[in-house]
Every structure is written in C-alpha cells, then in structure tokens.
Amino acid sequence: MxxxxxxxxxxxxxxxxLIIIIIILFSSIAGRLFWLQIVNxxxxxxxxxxxxxxxxxxxxxxxxxxxxxxxxxxxxKLIFSLMIQPHIIDxxxxxxxxxxxxNLLDVDRGLxxxxxxxxxxxxxxxxTLIPEMSQEQVLRxxxxxxxxxxxxxxxxxxxxxxxxxxxxxxxxxxQSINESEYKNLAKQGYKIQDVxxxxxxxxxFEEHLRGKWGGEMLEVDALGNIQRSIGFKSPExxxxxxxxxxxxxxxxxxxxxxxxxxxxxxVLDPHTxxxxxxxxxxxxxxxxxxxxxxxxxxxxxIFMSPTSPLxxxxxxxxxxxSTWKVVTAMAGMETGKFKSNILLKTFxxxxxGGHCFPEHNRKGWGTIGxxxxxxxxxxxxxxxxxxxxxxxxxxxxxxxxxxNTRTGVELENxxxxxxxxxKAWADRGRGWGLPGxxxxxxxxxxxxxxxxxxxxxxxxxxxxxxxxxxxxxxLITPHLVEREIDWLDSKYRKKVDISTTTLETIRRGLxxxxxxxxxxxxxxxxxxxxxVAGKTGTAEDSSGGEDHxxxxxxxxxxxxxxxxxxxxxxxxxxGSVHALPMAQDILKVWHQISF
Length: 595
Prior knowledge:
By secondary structure, the chain is of the alpha+beta class. The chain folds into 2 domains: about 60-220 and about 240, Alpha-Beta Complex (Penicillin-binding protein 2a (Domain 2)); about 245-300 and about 310-595, 3-Layer(aba) Sandwich (Beta-lactamase).
C-alpha cells in the first residue's frame, strides 16, 4: 500500500516536471518569436529583403566641356565590360566555360582565371573579367550569349578627351575616389565606384559637372536570377561647361610651344578678362586617368618625370626679367620721384653693395628718358629708379597691378601667388635663415628693379598686369568659364590708382619697343597687323637654371582687343629670340580670326 502511494507521488512529480519543462520551452520559443517579430522585426525584415532585392546603381553622365564656339573638349563615351556572377557559375563550371570564352573572345585564359579567382577571394557579387571590350568582342559574345548564363555585358560611360593633350592643364582630369575619400563623400551622394575631378576645371566645377546617380531595384531568386524590376530612377546628367577658350587660338598656342622644353602662353581679353588661350608645356593626356589598365612606364612618365608635366607653367611663378620694368617705371612716376619727362644718364654698370650691376650691352645708352629706356631695355636706367624709390613703394605698386596675389581665375587651388620681396621678409630669415641674420641689402632692391632674384610672377599675372596698360587702367579678373556675370562690373574690374600721364608714358614706351627696339622683329611678315606694343624680357633663373625668355604685348595699340604673354622656361638666348616668335604665331591666327 505504501509502495503504491510512493509510485503515484513519483509519477505525479514527473508529470509536473514535464509540464514545467514544456511551459519553459514554449515560453522561450514565444519570447524568441516576440524578440524576432516585434522587437527586431524591422531589422530582420530588411535583412530578408536584402537577400532577395538587389540595387543596381546607374552612374550619371558627366557634363561636357566645350570651347567658346561649341567645340567639344571633354565628353563621354560608352564602354562595354564583361561581367560574371560567381554565385551562378561555380569553379567547376567555370573551368569548362573559361576555355570556350577565351577562344571566343581571343583573350588569354590564364588572365581570365586569375581575375576570376581574385574576385572569389573578395566575395564579389559580380566580377569584371574584361573591363573594356572591343566592338568585335561584343558582337561575338552577343551571338552566343544564351549559352553563357551567368555572364553578361555591362554598359557604362567613361570620360574622354578627344584632343588628348590639348588644353590639358585647363581641363584637368578625373579619377576614381579612394576608400578614405568615400567616407566623407558618401554624405554628398558619391559611391565607392564613383569618379571625381582631381585638377583643372574638372575639379573646380566638380559639383556642376558630376550629375546625380540613378538606379534600379531588382528582385532576385536564391540563385541570383532576376525575377522582376521593382522600381527605377533615372540618373541626372551633369551640366555642360562652356569656356572662354577659342579652339584656334589655343591650338596655335600649343603648336607655338611644341619645340620648347617648358613654357607657357596666355592670351586674354584685356577688357573682360576672358582667357582665349592658356597653354603649358610639357603637357599630359588626361585620358590616361580613365584607362582601365595602365603600365608602370606610363605611370612614371606622368608622376615621376623630372619635367613635372602636371604643373601648369601658366600658373606657376618665375623671375620676370625686363617685363617687370613697367612696375618700376610706374613706381617712379607715381611717387613723384622720377617724373615722366625725367632724363637719366646710363652706365656700363652701377655699384650697389658688393656688386656692380651691369647694363646688358656693357656700355650704357647715354642719357635717356622712360620711352627710350623701354625701347632699349636699359637696366641701369631702372636700377636708379628702383633703388631711389625703395622696396616699400615698389611692392605697393606691384600690388596695384595684381602681383603677389592670386588673379581670381577659377583654378585658384593650382595658382601660385607669386612673390615680391619686402624688408620684413628679409628680416624674418628669407625662408631659410634665422630672424635677424639675413637683412635687406642694396643688392636686393637693385635686383627687384629689373625683375630678378627677389621677384617672381606667373605668366597669367603678367598678362593681367599688361592688360592694365592695354585697357586704360583697369585691373581685370581673368576667367576661363562663360557665366552669367558682368565682368565689367567694379567687383571684377577695378580702376587702378594711376595717373593718365604715367599710363600713357608707359604705353608709348612699350610701343617703341616694337617699332624700333628689342621687339622690332615682331611685325616682320605681319605688315597688315594693327600696331602692337610690348616688352621683351630675359631673366636669370634664381633657382639656378638657365635663363628664361619672356615677351608680353597687346594690340591694337590704340584700342586693344588682345593681350599675349609668351614664356619659354630655361631657354637662354633672350625674349626677342625665343618668346617673341611664339607671340607672333598667336597674332597671325588672331588676325585671321578677327579681320
């Protein structure tokens, strides 16, 4: 009887335990379901949809860049890439397909295998086997596409520059963004496979040119096969950019520089500041940066070359030599220390500090005034003016003409401010010494008077300064892009504090240079050309290289339409020998266009 009762109690306890276990089990399941469905339902729903939905992004078409007459300078072209989906084609099937594919498209099978395996290692959803297919390859594949399930042709557009090196420093180039950039740019709508302007107008007008991404939402099955399109948003094309550049003048500038190791030419409208041409040598082909495959040799020619082809010489600063004498003359007259009718005796050389600064003919030119000093490019005439006026006034005059500061051109991130020394700069150590150990000395002001050693300007700055003498005394804003801006407004075109007497004296001197002075060869073979005024320049390279050659001019003399600055870097022989002929070539083309 007792054993029977014990057995009943034992069975009852076991039933209770079983019920408790079942309750706990179902409670756990219910709790888990509540957690999954209610608490984290949204999260897991997104994950579930992610397994069946694919977002296929569609890049925007970048805006075109055209010259002032509509000539296409930067555009886009379609490229065809062969893609494979590794989740559809496994390694076993790939071994069979790869041989057929290599034979069909006449490509190296080993290369295809290598690309496929690298893609598998990175767990890519799709792998690009051939980044840029030829037209023949596209046609061959399309004929047999049905037998290559899991392989497809992707169509995309890439930036193209039809004239290759033409205006490359103006246009700039684009490149794919890197991972570190993507972290910041993703907020602005960029994607990891996006491109961005790196230099030139491609960079300066990146937002204007790039457009906005579009895309399609696709539903796929477990194998990745597309079931249907859920939605599509068209990409927004970027805006076009029309430049002030004239193709014919730009081409003439590039041809004029072709036989020079390095140099630049700037052509601009002295009234509006519109840049008609701006060429730099050596140049580069921006198509290099959009190529799918580049060689080490190509890379080194761009980035490792001692000639630095990526640097725009038009925006880089150099010793200006005698083209700077307009600054010294203006300082002399505007301070009242050397009036417009002054006559000064010139010498074989003049002693300043420990150096006798020579006249370039080693004899002197007798007693002359400003106009003849420009005509023969007398050094000792301008030494006397510059030394007496002093660096403070010379520096102030340089600022009035737009030196020692950026011009306002759209490529400001690539533009040098140039350099005009001051006593304070010398006292601070000249950039290499200790403060107080490198004082301002008489030799400095003598050098500054003729644009040597302690003065450096860019070709664009020099063109802007000469525009002041071409347009009647206004400092304009150089620009490369046509925009809805009144460039004659005082915001962009400032009246320079210069007297009419000073302005006209310098103008007459510059005209004499071309009539009978160092620039007299300019009008040879150009008998029908309107009167030209200008200045030659030969400058010692303060960095230790060979001499630079310069020539700056404007025409027609009475009412100028064009300013030209030609610069040949480290090309000894003189501005009249090397730079003047370059300007002459531009004037010929300008005359054909204008008359």
